[in-house]
Specification:
Elements lengths: L1 H9 L9 H10 L4 H15 L7 E6 L7 H5 L2 E7 L2 H9 L5 E3 L13 E7 L8 H11 E12 L7 H5 L8 H10 L3 E8 L4 H10 L14 H12 L15 E7 L3
Parallel strand pairs: 1-2, 1-4, 2-3, 4-5
Antiparallel strand pairs: 5-7, 6-7
Helix pairs in contact: 1-2, 3-10
């Protein structure tokens, strides 16, 4: 409870990028909400299959309040980057890795050809020119380095949630693939996840399409939260081997092959 209160105080004056209440919610729910918890399990299962070096250099771009840092740190030497001051302070307070100030594509505090794995988890949709951003990420990768990226799927699911999070767009696997290729990245795998409960999420999104709700990041009642977490997390047994043909999120493994 003390951590929750401290985090709420930390984000009380946030004014950059997202509405302040969004960061406050993120700081509180990132370790409890079914979507965050299950997604970390799924992403960890995918990373285990990437055959990274034993002491891989890893970067998370747009780490937010740091919810993924502990998971990523288990796979190598971790760095992180975040543009929002308050979010960065929260991430640094976790004492997992150094979280530097930076923003794609122009203010990146790292040398080229530095990382074996770069992670962009629901970040690219915030950036005006996504191809230029991906070109910059490619330069940060070592030859043969991998980029693991997730973005929200389907323009027809656009809602107040996207508006409040200042999204520029939603993607399909095809549109993300085109942008990656245009940026000079090799597409190793691309598809969807968050599929098993896709009908439920899509229905709720469409019902809420014309509402003023600002965020989906509300923790449901405990039994529902647990059930959704268990259902979503089941995908960790599938997506390390094959991505789904549809889902609420697009996921891709890209490579710097030149």
């Amino acid at each position: 409870m003390k951590l929750k209160n401290d985090l709420c105080m930390l984000f009380a004056n946030t004014t950059q990028n997202m509405q302040p209440e969004i960061y406050r919610e993120m700081a509180v729910v990132q370790m409890q909400h079914w979507w965050f918890v299950a997604r970390r399990q799924i992403l960890a299962a995918i990373i285990k299959k990437l055959s990274l070096p034993n002491s891989a250099d890893i970067l998370e771009i747009g780490c937010g309040t740091g919810g993924n840092l502990a998971m990523l740190a288990a796979f190598g030497r971790l760095c992180a980057m975040e543009t929002d001051d308050s979010a960065r302070k929260c991430a640094n307070a976790l004492n997992i890795c150094s979280v530097a100030i930076g923003e794609l594509p122009n203010t990146v505090p790292y040398d080229d050809a530095t990382f074996d794995l770069i992670c962009l988890f629901d970040v690219l949709e915030h950036i005006k020119d996504d191809v230029i951003a991906l070109e910059r990420v490619k330069r940060l990768l070592k030859p043969g380095g991998r980029l693991l990226i997730t973005v929200p799927a389907y323009a027809w699911l656009w809602s107040a949630h996207d508006e409040s999070h200042h999204h520029k767009r939603r993607y399909t696997a095809a549109t993300l693939k085109r942008r990656a290729i245009h940026a000079g990245l090799t597409v190793m795998r691309i598809g969807y996840f968050n599929t098993l409960i896709f009908p439920v999420i899509a229905t709720i999104r469409l019902i809420r399409l014309r509402t003023t709700s600002v965020s989906d990041a509300k923790i449901p009642q405990a039994p529902i939260n647990t059930m959704l977490k268990m259902l979503f997390a089941l995908e960790r047994f599938v997506v390390p081997f094959v991505f789904f043909p549809f889902g609420t999120s697009v996921i891709a493994v890209l490579e710097h092959s030149k």
